[in-house]
Amino acid sequence: MEKEDFMRQAIALSEENVRQGGGPFGAVIVKDGEVVATGTNRVTASHDPTAHAEVSAIRAACQRLGTFDLSGCDIYTSCEPCPMCLGAIYWAHLDHIYYGNNKADAARIGFDDSFIYEELSLERDRRHKPMTELLPHEAKAAFRAWEEKADKQAY
Amino acid sequence: MEKEDFMRQAIALSEENVRQGGGPFGAVIVKDGEVVATGTNRVTASHDPTAHAEVSAIRAACQRLGTFDLSGCDIYTSCEPCPMCLGAIYWAHLDHIYYGNNKADAARIGFDDSFIYEELSLERDRRHKPMTELLPHEAKAAFRAWEEKADKQAY
Questions:
Q1: Residue A121 needs a FRET pair 20 to 30 A away by CA distance; which of A12, A81, A115, B60 works?
Q2: Do B57 and A49 form a contact (C-beta atoms < 8 A)?
Q3: Could you say which residues from 51 to 80 on chain A have a Cβ atom under 8 Å away from some Cβ of chain B?
């Protein structure tokens, strides 16, 4: 299969998801030329604001492959990832992102994540979302325990 | 209960999670002065790179409350959120973020998400992670279907 075939599968998922009442987003994760998992946007159906197509596909691929590390996999998503999904793609170590619609297209139909991109690029005390430091010294205990743990599984 | 009590619960979760083999992170979501859900980092245990404490707590709170919108809730997290979790917090519409450790503390023990923050602030063609546009015209079909759908549930 060619790259275009994988993207057409992601696009078909996005179209089917609208018919099923979800948002117009689909994603496919591919390893060694084969689809290992797919995902659609299930925010409203699943009561899960994190269930974007890319996050759903990453979770499914990790379950299928029994790992939290998707190095060697690519993601084909019908729309350019939002900051949450892009963060998830980095943590999952996906190799390459192929996208159909871009974020300007998404903004035109009411899915505007440019505000979140802007917020994340600001220092924390300049963001609109209030962030308050609390008990930083007490919070250090778990970090020390992690450092001292001999058999920890890093990730 | 006071703010400090909620943060201490998040910190206690982070400490217990290290003992159970997970990362040193815990989070608590509070509405109207009551804890509605908690979360810990289960990346390695659950084979889920998105299972950070904040994302886990958001998912649990949404299941508990039967909604994808956590307006009116605050999150207490033992460590400043990474870009993925911060994105999730925006999508979930949480009101206020209280954090214990900050991202510099996290970097010192090997959890450095500053690279992801930097990447997200760059234009897509300047990022290290390759992103390629593919079939943008075909991808528009689902967006048109969404626009034309009369009974869609926006979010």
A1: B60
A2: no
A3: 55, 58-59, 62-63, 66-70, 76, 78-80
pLDDT tens per residue, range B112-151: 899 999 999 999 999 999 999 999 999 999 999 999 998 9
Pairing of strands B96-101, A131-133: parallel
The answer to whether the beta carbons of residues A92 and A62 sit under 8 Å apart is yes
Model-level ipTM above the cut of 0.90? yes
| pTM for the predicted model, two decimal places | 0.97
Across the strands, what pairs with A101?
A: A79
Element (H, E) at B9: helix B3-19
Sign of the Cα torsion A115, B38, A43, A94 reads positive
Residue-by-residue DSSP string for A108-152: HTT---HHHHHHHHS-GGGSSS-EEE--HHHHHHHHHHHHH-TT-
